[in-house]
Amino acid sequence: MSHEDIPIIDAELYIEKKEGWEEECKKVADSFHRFGILKFKDPRVVAKDNDDYIDLVEKYFDVTSKKFYAGEELKDCRADLCYQTGVTPEGIEHARNHQALVDSLTGEDKPMSVQPPVKDAKWRFFWKIGERPEEVKDDIPQTYPEDFPSWEKDMDKWGNQIVDATFLAAEMAAIGMGLDKDTFTSKMKGGPHLLAPTASDIMKYPVGTAFASFHYDLNFITIHGKSRYPGLYLWTREWKK
What is the mean pLDDT of residues 2-24? Predict the structure, then answer.
């Protein structure tokens, strides 16, 4: 199996209820079941907004990393809140040890990251998207970087688009599984949705560096927009890279 075997879902068929939309929902369910991965094309997502978002975070991480390397204190870094808001510098995040699993994988399916894992060389920023119900709302504040006056507007603009895409995928998955369409989305409303851009200093580290160690996410669905650089790998349920 190769990544070409995983179908691209055309969500427009479902949105517009065009011919074949039911089959498209079944493809969503089947892709999640067979591969654990979904290739999703949502016509409501604007490519330019993705480019603008990447421009913004590239500029932010460039400025912030230079301050960090110069020994300056980062006001956006909230270690006191376990980095659950704002920026997390390189050398902080640490994946769990998956030595046994990694040892069982061979050839091109084997991860590049070493085991036991070392601390990640990547940076990250946590920005909450949407409001949470008062009864479960935490007291972790949003972090607003200095010198980026449009940060909230720009982050929310892109973050809401990709959160909406996950809701649409979840709705289509439910229909494809023969469930009520709000089976999953009703549980996602008011959830702790996070926009979490990452960045890597490719000038600092040698070729072959794994910026994020082999890991799995805790979320119901993790969504990635289109990146400007290759290098993100996923493993299917059969542990094919």
Answer: 92
**Structure confidence by residue, pLDDT tens digits, 101-143:** 999 999 999 999 989 999 999 999 999 999 999 999 899 999 9
Our count of domains for the chain comes to 1
Residues 86-98 have a mean pLDDT of 96
For the segment 213-237, what is each residue's pLDDT rounded down to a tens digit? 999 988 899 999 988 888 899 999 8
Is residue 120 one of the residues assigned to a domain?
Answer: yes
Buried b (16+ CB within 10 A) or exposed e, 194-210: bbebbbbbeeeeeeeeb
Residue 82 lies in a domain: yes
Whether the pLDDT of residue 12 is over 90: the answer is: yes
Question: What is the C-alpha separation between 160 and 153, in angstroms, rounded?
Answer: 10
Give residue 132's domain range: 47-175+185-199
DSSP symbols for 35-100: HS--EEE-TTS-HHHHHHHHHHHHHHHHHHHHHHHTT---TTB-GGGTT-SEEE-TT---PPP-HH
